[in-house]
Write a structure and sequence with these properties.
Blueprint: H1 2-11, H2 18-24, H3 29-40, H4 44-62, H5 68-74, H6 80-91, H7 95-102, E1 118-122, E2 125-128, E3 130-132, H8 136-149, E4 157-161, E5 175-179, E6 191-194, E7 197-204, H9 211-223, E8 228-239, H10 241-244, E9 254-262
Antiparallel strand pairs: 1-7, 2-6, 3-5, 4-5, 4-8, 7-9, 8-9
Helix pairs in contact: 2-3, 5-6
Length: 268
């Protein structure tokens, strides 16, 4: 069932009928539906719709200049009308009403006084990942175990936030960990593609519950006055297991990478 969730995470923009999901994990549609419902407490299609709505929530909050049509299509809905209906059923408000409530009125600092974002170019990467609970103590244990498995020189570990803990509870976020090395084999159920492009880099130390505030502060104080804007709600962090296991995840220094674009370019 975890493979099925990863398949939805990778392919939620596609139509993904029940038959395709069942075939991806080698089960009949009836058997897959029954096992998924028992494991997750909701049907596969309800879970997939929740992934799409969660992604749309991130786009509404992080990309205020994206059109609602673009948000609908990018989130896997077949039409803006279908997106609006599903969103209203789930949250009791239309996407436009939620977007209006998210608009912040604080004045941005002047460009001359604002720090400039630190940019780096990262190529597209395919990584073999493992799903982890977004919990500080749980991640600390995983980092310690990874350090024990590979003594000596070892690549850093990437933590990939498919859902960022801004407005989604940490327990519901999809967070994956991977060695920072490319997976050159064929496509697999446990492989995610990290999109290439320009990323803004910032350093962060603190618990998961403070991460959202740090990124919103970076967005308002650094990105807004600059020539760049967020290009995606997916971001990742770089950790060093051998250095960080003694401190624990919440106390180690992490490098965060947020995908950016030049203002005026297409947002999606």
């Amino acid at each position: 069932m975890e493979w099925a969730v990863l398949e939805m995470t990778r392919r939620f923009r596609e139509p993904l009928p029940l038959q395709d999901l069942a075939a991806a994990v080698g089960l009949s549609p009836h058997h897959f539906h029954r096992l998924f419902l028992a494991a997750h407490g909701e049907t596969p299609m309800a879970y997939l719709r929740r992934i799409r709505l969660s992604h749309a929530d991130h786009l509404l909050a992080a990309l205020p200049d994206a059109s609602l049509v673009a948000v609908a299509i990018e989130s896997g809905f077949s039409s803006p009308a279908c997106f609006s209906r599903a969103y209203r059923q789930a949250y009791g408000q239309s996407p436009g009403q939620v977007r209006a409530s998210l608009q912040r009125s604080a004045l941005a600092p002047s460009a001359s006084a604002a720090p400039r974002p630190r940019l780096c170019h990262i190529p597209t990467r395919r990584l073999r990942v493992m799903r982890q609970t977004l919990d500080d103590e749980a991640i600390s244990r995983v980092l310690a175990a990874m350090a024990e498995q590979q003594p000596g020189l070892m690549p850093p570990v990437l933590g990939i936030f498919v859902d960022a803990p801004f407005h989604v509870p940490a327990a519901q976020c999809r967070y994956f960990m991977a060695w920072e090395r490319d997976f050159a084999g064929e496509e697999g159920r446990d492989v995610l593609t990290l999109p290439g492009g320009y990323y803004a880099r910032l350093e962060f130390t603190g618990p998961t519950e403070a991460l959202g505030r740090a990124i919103f502060a970076f967005h308002d104080q650094v990105l807004l006055p600059s020539a760049y804007a967020l290009a995606s709600t997916l971001f990742f962090e770089r950790l060093h297991p051998q250095q960080d296991r003694a401190q624990g995840y919440a106390h180690c220094k992490r490098e965060l990478f947020l995908k950016v674009r030049r203002k005026g370019e297409l947002v999606i």
